[in-house]
Amino acid sequence: MMIDLHNHTPLCHHAEGSIEEFVQAALLQKIDVFGFSDHAPMNFDEDYRMSFSQMADYERDVLHVKEKYQDQIKILLAYEVDFLQGYIDERVLKRNVDYFIGSVHYLGSWGFDNPEFIGEYRTKNIDEVWERYFEAITAMAKSGLFDIVGHLDLIKVFNYLPKKDVRMIAKEAIKAIKGANMAIELNAAGFRKPVGEQYPSHPLLELMAEHDIPITFGSDAHAVDHIGFLQDDLRAIAKNYGYKKCATFESRDRILVNF
Q1: Structural domain for 163, as ranges
Q2: How do residues 36-60 score in pLDDT, each as one tens digit?
Q3: pTM of the full predicted structure?
């Protein structure tokens, strides 16, 4: 089966293409399970996410295509939620969804994956930045709020890489993810970014496999032509680390399927 659980809609203000166009593209890519997981609302950096008032419309539109295309593809409803202390909102966490992706896009107020703020990397100790990032991933896992870790090593997006061994930096986060029984996505968006590789990196995939952490797959599509992007490559990478099954979800219940 081809699973693709990380995809956005224009409600996030930085994606293009309608929900129906995304589904039609997924059909062309022969995707079996396609999840919409747009950026959940929060009272922070509102320009990059839907508003609370748009949640009902988002869910209605996804459920509409779920029913319309039910004989051709399985559509799932989800949110990608920013893990940012003090801003995670119960109005999101109480929604009736198939899964939640937990992601870290901010260290304090710094949106580190936003090209507008790339200059901040040159003012900081890069190892300390990576350590802070994986401390946030650890806290996110320990919160027990989410089902999937989004783009595990997003901090590498602009190719500012640590001097320390990334496996040592991330080891506590990996333990916390294992303890929280979360899955980690193989996310194709990194191939479209300056770092030029999937999230997570090969050393982290090795660490994940050692801890027997389940995986899933995501295009992280923000445009129709992103859907299914390099999914065959992602699956081949996963198989190189001994993975044969990946996770999908239904009403927060994880199901492992062959890929």
Answers
A1: 3-258
A2: 999 999 999 888 899 999 999 999 9
A3: 0.97
